[in-house]
Specification:
Elements: E1 6-11, H1 16-26, E2 34-39, H2 47-53, E3 60-63, E4 78-82, H3 112-117, H4 125-152, E5 161-166, H5 181-201, H6 211-222, E6 234-237, E7 240-241, H7 251-265
Parallel strand pairs: 1-2, 2-3, 4-5, 5-6
Antiparallel strand pairs: 6-7
Helix pairs in contact: 1-2, 1-6, 4-7
């Protein structure tokens, strides 16, 4: 298409959720009028995505590194970040592997400099790793709120919406390939075959097929009926609006994360944001 109406950029497009999103997108009428840009680390290992793209319109492009983003030209731009219930130490779904059991594990937030170096835990290695994963998702949600404030304060960028989506657990995606043998067995086989039934019984429940959150991600990008025209700083649990953790909603911590991250990364004025 010589004059596409817009573009859809997705990072990690060869992953379980990424490829499921692309599969939903290329089957959607929106794909025929918009350019798809799918970024991955290594094109030679993108067998899953390439299979999906065989049915994609010719406006789809596969790249191995993100292009430099330009100033948005549309009035309906959206940025969607992928979160997880693991960002909330008080979420009961974390109890299944007890990663936050104990008062010392109920606070994931730390000083940004300490977080940049990695928090040392001295218990089970898998639980410690999942706790760090949850912390990374906590920072994603906090970043969503602060970025939305920055964008909304700029008249030229104020119509950009930032959202965060918790896709739920997806068996068979390879996300937990480095987990203990029992966890791999549970997610690769048992959960993989049970989750279609679980989705039918409870669409936004603890386990979902990749296709379901792939479609939820598509809705987060495009839906206006449920989300409205400008869904600013909206957190989604699947296809439903949800409330993130108390830590994630702390304004002061959100601001500190932003400011300290700029210092740690030594970022300057190379941005369209007027207020850093």
């Amino acid at each position: 298409m010589s004059n596409p109406k817009g573009s859809v950029l997705i990072t990690g497009a060869n992953g379980g959720l990424g490829s499921a999103f692309v599969s939903n997108l290329v089957a959607f009428p929106y794909a025929s009028s918009h350019r798809g840009i799918y970024t991955i680390r290594d094109p030679s290992c993108a067998a899953t995505l390439k299979t999906v793209l065989q049915n994609a319109p010719k406006t789809a492009h596969l790249v191995d590194s993100p292009t430099r983003p330009q100033k948005p030209s549309s009035e309906h731009e959206r940025i969607v970040l992928v979160s997880s219930w693991s960002h909330d130490a008080y979420d009961s779904r974390n109890d299944s592997i007890a990663i936050c059991r104990g008062d010392e594990y109920k606070t994931l937030w730390r000083d940004p400099e300490a977080l940049s170096k990695g928090i040392a835990y001295h218990d089970n290695g898998y639980k410690a790793g999942m706790r760090r994963y949850g912390t990374s998702k906590l920072l994603h949600v906090m970043f969503m709120y602060e970025l939305q404030r920055k964008l909304s304060a700029d008249p030229a960028l104020s119509k950009i919406s930032v959202l965060s989506l918790d896709p739920g657990a997806m068996g068979g995606t390879g996300l937990l390939r480095d987990s203990p043998a029992f966890i791999r067995l549970l997610t690769r086989y048992l959960l993989y075959y049970l989750q279609p039934i679980m989705v039918l019984l409870k669409p936004n429940g603890i386990a979902r097929t990749p296709k379901k959150p792939g479609y939820d991600l598509l809705l987060a990008c495009l839906d206006e009926k449920y989300l409205g025209e400008y869904p600013k700083a909206v957190y989604l649990g699947g296809s439903e609006k949800a409330i993130p953790s108390v830590e994630a909603r702390d304004d002061k911590k959100q601001r500190k994360l932003w400011v300290e991250s700029l210092k740690l990364r030594r970022l300057g004025r190379d941005t369209v944001l007027k207020d850093l």
